[in-house]
Amino acid sequence: ARQLKKPYILESVDSEVRICDLRPGQEYRVRVAAENTAGIGRYSSSEIFRTKVIKPECPRLEDSQVVLADINYLKLQWGYPGYDGGGKICGCQVEMKKIGRL
Q: Residues 89, 57: contact at Cβ < 8 Å?
């Protein structure tokens, strides 16, 4: 897991906070400390959680190409997505549809 060089600190007077802009499929560690006029107290024990994985971006179309086409087959190549959605790419689906006659 990627380590942050500097912790992300949020301040709240409530007993809850919403943290936004987290990356999908990423593991994070959170802990809480109270603060008063004397300073910041000890931190709670850490909670580790992982955000949900989302669907990946589409494969890069600029990298796709028909490499070989013959009477009854073709070979197609493409580039993997620029972003995997936070999860390992485990395959791709290729859809092909017959179009009208020329």
A: no
